[in-house]
Write a structure and sequence with these properties.
The chain has about 300 residues and is an alpha/beta fold. The protein has a domain at about 130-195. About 35% of the residues lie in helices and about 20% in strands. The chain contains eleven helices and ten strands. Helix 5 (about 135-145) packs across helix 6, helix 5 (about 135-145) packs parallel to helix 7 (about 180-195) and helix 10 (about 265-275) packs across helix 11. The chain is globular, with a radius of gyration of 19 Å. The relative contact order is 0.18.
Length: about 300
C-alpha cells in the first residue's frame, strides 16, 4: 500500500505531497521511492546536536545519538524533563537547526539536502508561538496562508472553521491578538499550522498554559485531525494523561538520549511487572530518568524545554 496518500483537504490550494516533492527534486521521469519502498513518515537515524554554551565550559550534547521511526498516521510522543532535548529534536526535524551528525528523513526526503521540499510537508506549533500582536487572528492567519500561496478568501474561511472547532467564535477574529489570553493565542497558533494541511505536524508542548477546557478542546482536535486528515504527528508534552490519551508510541529522553521507547501500554506493563510499581506513565518516567518532569537538566540548552 502506498504511504503517500494525499491528506483530506477543504478548498485549500494544492499542497505538495511526498510524491510530488520527490518528483520536484528528482524530475518527472524518476520513480518515487516513497511510493515504491513504503518509507516511514519520519526517520531519525543516529542524530546528534551539540551546543557551545561558553568559552570556558564544555559543549552541551542536547541530542545524543537518537534513532526513532514514525509510520504514516501515527502519533509519537516525546517525554523528557526541562532541558532534556525535546525541543532541540523538534527544531532539528523542522530544519530550524542543522545536524552535527546523523540523518533525518521525512517521507524519504532528507531535511538538509531536500530542505525546501521538506518545509512544504511540515508545520510546527511551539509553546511560545510568534505573532504580530497588534494584528488580529484573522490578519495573522491570512498573512501566514499567503506565504504558502493560499488565497486570502480561502484562508479566512478555513481559519473560521478551524478556530470554531477550537472554541474561538468568529466575532473574536478581528480583535488584536495582544488582547487575547495566552490560551486563545495558542489556539490561533494551532490554526495557523493547520491552514497548510501539513502531512507531518510537529507539536512542541501545544497545550502548555491552556485552561482545562481549552486543553481538552485541543486534545480532541488532535485526535480528529489524525482521523480526518491522515496526518502524522510528533508531540512533546509534560502532561502524562495527554501522552497516554493521544500517543501510539512514546520515546523518553534523558540528557538527550532515548532511555525508553514503546507504546504507553508496553511501558506501563514493564514497570508494573518488572518493578512492582503502579502502571502509570509517571512511574515510567521516574523509573527511566530518576527525576520529575519539572526538574531542569543541568547545562541544557537555554531555550530547550
Amino acid at each position: 500500500m502506498s504511504i503517500i496518500l494525499e491528506p483530506r483537504r477543504t478548498e485549500l490550494a494544492p499542497a505538495v505531497t511526498p510524491d510530488a516533492a520527490r518528483r520536484a527534486e528528482c524530475g518527472p521521469d524518476d520513480a518515487s521511492p516513497a511510493v515504491a519502498s513504503g518509507l516511514p513518515a519520519l526517520r531519525i537515524d543516529h542524530v546528534t546536536k551539540t551546543f557551545v554554551v561558553g568559552r570556558h565550559k564544555r559543549p552541551v550534547v542536547a541530542v545524543d545519538d537518537v534513532t526513532l521511526r514514525v509510520e504514516r498516521g501515527g502519533i509519537l510522543g516525546i517525554l523528557g524533563a526541562n532541558g532534556g532535548g525535546k525541543s532541540t529534536l523538534i527544531r532539528l526535524i523542522s530544519t530550524l537547526l542543522t545536524l552535527d551528525a546523523g540523518r533525518i528523513e521525512i517521507f524519504g526526503l532528507d531535511v538538509e539536502r531536500d530542505e525546501m521540499a521538506v518545509k512544504r510537508l511540515i508545520n510546527r506549533v511551539s509553546a511560545d508561538a510568534a505573532f504580530f500582536k497588534k494584528l488580529s487572528p484573522a490578519e495573522n492567519l491570512v498573512y501566514a496562508a499567503r506565504l504558502y500561496g493560499i488565497a486570502p478568501s480561502v484562508a479566512r474561511g478555513e481559519a473560521v472553521r478551524i478556530l470554531a472547532r477550537l472554541g474561538i467564535a468568529e466575532t473574536r477574529l478581528d480583535r488584536p491578538l495582544e488582547q487575547m489570553s495566552r490560551g486563545m493565542q495558542q489556539k490561533v497558533a494551532i490554526a495557523r499550522a493547520l491552514l497548510t494541511s501539513p502531512t507531518l505536524l510537529l507539536l512542541d508542548e501545544p497545550t502548555t498554559g491552556l485552561d482545562p477546557r481549552s486543553k481538552l478542546d485541543v486534545q480532541t482536535f488532535i485526535e480528529e485531525l489524525r482521523s480526518t486528515h491522515d496526518a502524522t504527528i510528533v508531540l512533546t508534552t509534560h502532561d502524562m494523561d495527554e501522552a497516554d490519551r493521544l500517543c501510539d508510541h512514546l520515546a523518553i529522553l534523558d540528557r538527550g538520549r532515548v532511555v525508553a521507547e514503546g507504546t504507553p501500554a508496553e511501558l506501563k506493563a514493564r514497570v508494573a511487572n518488572e518493578l512492582g510499581m503502579p502502571p502509570t506513565l509517571q512511574s515510567v518516567f521516574m523509573t527511566f530518568t530518576g527525576r520529575s518532569l519539572d526538574d531542569d537538566v543541568e547545562e541544557a540548552e537555554p531555550d530547550d524545554d
